[in-house]
Amino acid sequence: EVQLVESGGGMVQPGGSLRLSCTASGFSFRSYDMRWLRQAPGKGPEWVSEIASDGGSTYYIDSVKGRFTISRDNAKNTLYLQMDSLKPEDTALYYCGRSLDKYQKRGQGTQVTVSS
């Protein structure tokens, strides 16, 4: 069974930073492209970033380019999202997934709130 557990969210002031983690189990993590998604209150899920299975290629939605960095540690079965220069519009529930699963949400997600 595919299991994904997100952590690292919290409340920060604008301009602050957070590092999200996603620990995977139940499948061969190193074989899959992975992604981060987010869902703000009252809105649909939004793709944020994606990384190739070997970490060699990364992709970002325009609104986070230059501020967020996706990475992975295949030895630890863990996906990361370093978020810097956070803005109020980044407030959302963040969750990770396998790219082939599109927008499917398997874990509980981790809440990020950016507010002064």
Q: On the 0-100 scale, what is the average pLDDT? A: 97
Portion in helices: under 10%
Tally of contiguous helical segments: 0
> What structural class results from the helix and strand content?
mainly beta
* Strand percent estimate: over 45%
Tell me the strand order in the biggest sheet.
2-10-9-4-5-6
Report the uncertain regions. Answer: none
> Based on CA inertia axes, which overall geometry fits?
globular
User: What distance lies between the first and last C-alpha atoms, to the nearest angstrom?
Assistant: 40 Å
Q: How many individual β-strands?
A: 10
Secondary-structure element order, N to C: EEEEEEEEEE
Rg measurement, Å: 13 Å
What does this entry look like structurally?
This protein has 116 residues and is mainly beta. Helices cover 0% and strands 47% of the residues. The chain is built from no helices and ten strands. The chain is globular. The protein starts with a strand and ends with a strand.
